[in-house]
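Below is how a single chain appears once it has passed through the pipeline. First comes the sequence as given, then the structure the pipeline wrote out for it. We keep one example in the README because the format questions we get most often are answered faster by looking than by reading.
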Amino acid sequence: AEMLVKKEYYDAIELILKSRKAAANHKEYTCIADLAARLQDTLDMTEEKLDSVLSTICYNFDENGFRKLRKAYALLGKTQAAMEQLHMHYSSAVNNSSIEAVKNYVGEVSLDMKFQEMCQSVQPTKAPTCLLNLCENLFLIMRSYYLLVNWHTKHDAEEYIPISNNVFEIEKNVSREYIRQKLKAGLVRIWHDVQAKVSMFLKSSGLEEYPFEKFIQMLGILRKLTQVAEVFCGDKSDILQDFIKTQSVLYIKNYHRGRMEELKLFLE
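Resulting structure:
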């Protein structure tokens, strides 16, 4: 436990594995069998702790912390499994961050209230600030993932293994390629999740009711977000761009109609 507090994950796992191996050599003794069971429980708890720390990477990528985690998972033989789990954490982070961003602008939030319902409850006057907060939260996750991908790119270059017939090296290269492809696909997937949350907010918040100044503010925020996406994964944000164009045309038509009606009343 003390090692985990000090973030010495590799040393903690190494000690447990060595102890478990030593216990296996004397498993005929009842007390040793009990010890082996406790060691397994300790290992399971340690892995849970690793997973908990791994989830924090989604919000703030820490190079040193991630290096320690990766080394620990490598010792467990779970490098690929950890990468799978990390991607699940990123998906959860997008969802949780979206809810946290929006619920602050909603009156009362019940436990079973869905994200879409929260978006519908945001007042038009608060919508631009809420959207900005939502985008900022999601940007932090995108930034973390972007740094994660860059770290792996740099790390792979430093640890490049020439093609050989050595089974261990072949497996290592296969694992590295798997992770590289996983990370590449993750860029698009995370942006897709982010885009879905922002689009849901826009569709649910009744843009046509916004004052003109607020509407322009929101367009500016969305413009910045699409620029970030292009750097993040090269995506042109077609879904968001089409939505912006469609909503802008509708808004201008409604705005124009409203002004014409005001003018008509004034002239009468």
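Residues 167-204 form the longest helix (38 residues).

See the next section for the split statistics.
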